[in-house]
């Protein structure tokens, strides 16, 4: 389990306590130069692999460190779980079993697939954006994702964005490689301590998603060559 963290001191313990440690071999927390005591909390909880960036590298930059460490440890299955307690770690056994039993190489926990998104407090503009921007999946923007080690090793994510669009670029790479993605319904919680980008950042991200989709399509049609898909 990899946890990209920023200002997670207030929610990390609640998240970590629900991780089924009898099933998970290693937990990796990467702190992106948080101004709070996220690292101290992580160490107090006994998280074995705690990495702290000296400067803020962004959400995508944080994930790059997470996955690099997971690969270094020889992970067979890698699950990204946000430490802000919006997503329940109780879904880990289900997501892991889908990959472990060879059903799908990638699993996303979708807030949109069921009826839990708005009920859990997702802002309406985010819900609408998810429904409008997506085609093949119920949700492209979840922060709860599981990958087989094979998938992670096959993707060159070093050239991906260091910002939030990293997630969408990674999906483009997964589809380009021909991997299939399964989805499971996931309840979600939106509350004051949980991290969330504002409307302006969400709008910028939405434009980035459209750009990613366009570049993917042009590359698939052979009209251009997008560096991250080579």
Q: Which properties best describe this structure?
A:
single chain, 230 residues, alpha/beta, 4-stranded mixed beta sheet, 7 strands
The helix count comes to 9
Total number of strands: 7
Q: Using the CA coordinates, give the radius of gyration.
A: 17 Å
- Quote the distance from N terminus to C terminus: 28 Å
> Within the largest sheet, what's the order of strands?
4-6-5-7
Class by alpha and beta content: alpha/beta
Strand content: 5-15%
Q: How does the major sheet shape up?
A: 4 strands, mixed
Helix content: 25-40%
Taken in chain order, the helices and strands follow as EHEHEHEHEHHEHHEH
Q: Ranges with pLDDT <50 over ≥5 residues?
A: 124-135
| Overall morphology | globular
Mean pLDDT: 87
Structural description of this entry:
This protein has helices at residues 12-17, 38-45, 58-72, 92-100, 116-119, 124-133, 149-154, 166-176, 199-220, and strands at residues 2-5, 28-31, 49-52, 77-80, 106-110, 145-148, 181-185. Helix 6 (124-133) runs parallel beside helix 9 and helix 8 packs parallel to helix 9. The chain is of the alpha/beta class. The protein is globular, with a radius of gyration of 17 Å.
């Amino acid at each position: 389990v990899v946890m990209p963290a920023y200002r997670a001191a207030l929610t990390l313990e609640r998240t970590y306590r629900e991780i089924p440690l009898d099933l998970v071999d290693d937990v990796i927390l990467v702190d992106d130069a948080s101004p709070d005591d996220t690292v101290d909390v992580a160490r107090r909880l006994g998280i074995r692999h705690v990495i702290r960036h000296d400067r803020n590298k962004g959400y995508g930059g944080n994930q790059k460190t997470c996955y690099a460490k997971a690969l270094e440890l020889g992970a067979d299955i890698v699950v990204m779980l946000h430490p802000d307690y919006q997503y329940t770690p109780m879904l880990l056994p289900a997501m892991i079993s889908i990959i472990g039993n060879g059903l799908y190489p990638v699993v996303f926990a979708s807030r949109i697939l069921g009826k839990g998104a708005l009920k859990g407090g997702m802002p309406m503009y985010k819900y609408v954006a998810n429904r409008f921007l997506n085609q093949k999946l119920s949700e492209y923007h979840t922060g709860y994702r599981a990958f087989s080690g094979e998938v992670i090793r096959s993707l060159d994510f070093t050239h991906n964005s260091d910002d939030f669009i990293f997630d969408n670029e990674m999906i483009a790479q997964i589809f380009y490689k021909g991997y299939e993605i399964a989805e499971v319904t996931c309840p979600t919680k939106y509350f004051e301590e949980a991290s969330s980008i504002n409307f302006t950042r969400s709008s910028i991200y939405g434009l980035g998603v459209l750009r990613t989709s366009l570049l993917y399509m042009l590359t698939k049609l052979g009209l251009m060559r997008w560096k991250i898909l080579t």
